[in-house]
Design a protein that fits this description.
By secondary structure, the protein is an alpha+beta fold. Strand 10, helix 6 and strand 11 form a beta-alpha-beta unit. Helix 4 packs antiparallel against helix 5 and helix 12 crosses helix 13.
C-alpha cells in the first residue's frame, strides 16, 4: 500500500521586521521604509503630537540594511545592502532603528499560533518555519488559509505560505506569490513553475555556485535539469553533482525536524567607525562587555550553557581572526564569559584598528544538566592585556 503523499509547508512572514514596525507606526503604511538605523534614529514627537521620522539621506555610517518594505525594495533597497548605498537609491525613505526584542516577541506569537494547529514545526529562523501537515485531515487550500488566518489573528501580520511535497519546493514556492500569498505545487507543476526560475532560487545554491554554473552555461533550473550528471561531475564533486541533479528535478527527501539543538550562540557588532585598541579602549571595552552580557542573556533565555568561549575580530583591512577558550565546566554567567573571552584576547596582537567584534559560546548543553563553571584568574580582564 502506497504511503500518504507528503504535504510540507513553508511559511515566510512578509517583510517581517518592517511589518512589525508598521504596526507601531501605521502612518508609514504604503511608504518606503528601511530598518537598520541606530537608536538615535528613533522618531521624535512634534508639538502637534505627530511623529517626525528620520529619512535615509540623513544616515552617516557603514551599517547595513536589516530589511525594507516592499515599496523600498521597488526602489532597489534590499537587506544586507550598505546603508549609504541604500541612501543613494532611496534618499527620502523613512529610516527606523532595529528592535530585535519586538521582532522576537512577534516571532514567538506567530509560531505559537501555528503550533495550535499542528506541532510538527521546524524552526528555521525568526521569520520562517517548515510545517508537516501530511496527517491533517483538511484540504490543502483550506489548511493554508487556516494557518494564515491564525497567524494574522495572533500578530496582525501577513505571511506567505507554500505547500508542496517537500521542503525544497515549498521554500521556493513561498516566494512566488509574495506578499500575503498562497502557493500550492505538485511535482507535475515543476516544468511550468520551477524550471523557468534562476538556479539561485534553490536553497543551497549561493553566489559562488551560481557563478560557477553560469560559467558552464547554466542559468535556470531548467538548464540544470537538462544537464547530464556526467557533465556536472566534470565540474563539481560527485556528491554535489548528484545533489544538483536531484534538486533540479524537485527531489528532496528531508524530513521536517521538530527539534534540534543549537551548536553555538553568538553576538557581534560592526562599529560605525574603526576603533583603535588603545586610543579607543573605553569604547571597545564597553562594547566587548555588552556582547558578553547579551550572549549570556541569550543562553539563559534559550535554556543552555556552554563550555567553549570564542571571539572574532575583524580589522580595518578586513583581516579576520578568531580565538577560543574552553572552560572546565559549562556556564551562562556573563562575568565568566567575559573573563574567558578576555583570555582569548590575550592571544591576539592588537595593533591595528578594529572594524568588528564578536563573541560566541559553543559546546552547548541544556542548562539543567550542567554544572557552573569558573575560569581562572578571577580578576576582571581588560580589553588590552
Amino acid at each position: 500500500m502506497d504511503a500518504t503523499p507528503r504535504r510540507i509547508a513553508h511559511l515566510d512572514m512578509d517583510a517581517f521586521y518592517a511589518s512589525v514596525e508598521l504596526l507601531r507606526y501605521p502612518e508609514l503604511q504604503g511608504l518606503p521604509v528601511v530598518i537598520g538605523g541606530r537608536s538615535t534614529h528613533q522618531p521624535t514627537i512634534k508639538t502637534d503630537g505627530s511623529r517626525q521620522f528620520y529619512q535615509l539621506r540623513e544616515y552617516v555610517g557603514r551599517g547595513v540594511v536589516t530589511t525594507s518594505t516592499y515599496e523600498a525594495r521597488a526602489m532597489g533597497v534590499f537587506s544586507a545592502m550598505g546603508m549609504m548605498k541604500a541612501a543613494q537609491l532611496a534618499p527620502e525613505a523613512i529610516l527606523l532603528p532595529t528592535d530585535f526584542d519586538s521582532y522576537r516577541h512577534y516571532s514567538q506569537l506567530f509560531k505559537a499560533a501555528v503550533a495550535g494547529i499542528t506541532p510538527k514545526i521546524e524552526n528555521t529562523g525568526i521569520d520562517e518555519i517548515y510545517i508537516d501537515i501530511t496527517d491533517l485531515p483538511d484540504e490543502t487550500l483550506v489548511l493554508a488559509q487556516r494557518i494564515k488566518q491564525a497567524v494574522y489573528n495572533a500578530t496582525g501580520l501577513t505571511c506567505s505560505i507554500s505547500i508542496t511535497p517537500n521542503k525544497l519546493l515549498s521554500k521556493i514556492g513561498s516566494d512566488l506569490e509574495k506578499p500575503d500569498g498562497i502557493t500550492i505545487l505538485s511535482m507535475s507543476d515543476i516544468p511550468d513553475r520551477i524550471w523557468p526560475l534562476s538556479v539561485r532560487k534553490i536553497n543551497g545554491i549561493g553566489p559562488k555556485a551560481s557563478k560557477k554554473l553560469a560559467s558552464i552555461g547554466i542559468l535556470t533550473i531548467a538548464e540544470l535539469a537538462q544537464a547530464k550528471l556526467s557533465f556536472l561531475q566534470s565540474h563539481f564533486s560527485r556528491s554535489t553533482s548528484t545533489w544538483l541533479h536531484e534538486v533540479s528535478h524537485g527531489i528532496d527527501n528531508r524530513s521536517v525536524i521538530t527539534h534540534s539543538e543549537p551548536k553555538s550562540i553568538s553576538r557581534e557588532t560592526t562599529f560605525e567607525q574603526d576603533l583603535h585598541p588603545r586610543h579607543d579602549r573605553p569604547a571597545l571595552s564597553k562594547a566587548f562587555t555588552a556582547l558578553c552580557t547579551r550572549v549570556a542573556a541569550d543562553l539563559q533565555r534559550k535554556g543552555y550553557t556552554g563550555r567553549t568561549i570564542g571571539i572574532k575580530l575583524r580589522f580595518a583591512d578586513f583581516h579576520t581572526v578568531t580565538r577560543d577558550f574552553t572552560l572546565t565546566a559549562h556556564t551562562a554567567d556573563p562575568a565568566t564569559i567575559r573573563r574567558a573571552a578576555g583570555e582569548c584576547l590575550r592571544r591576539i596582537s592588537l595593533e591595528k584598528r578594529l572594524r568588528l567584534l564578536g563573541v560566541r559560546v559553543s559546546s552547548l548543553s541544556p542548562a539543567h544538566s550542567s554544572q557552573a563553571a569558573t575560569v581562572s584568574p578571577q580578576r576582571e580582564l581588560p580589553l588590552i592585556p
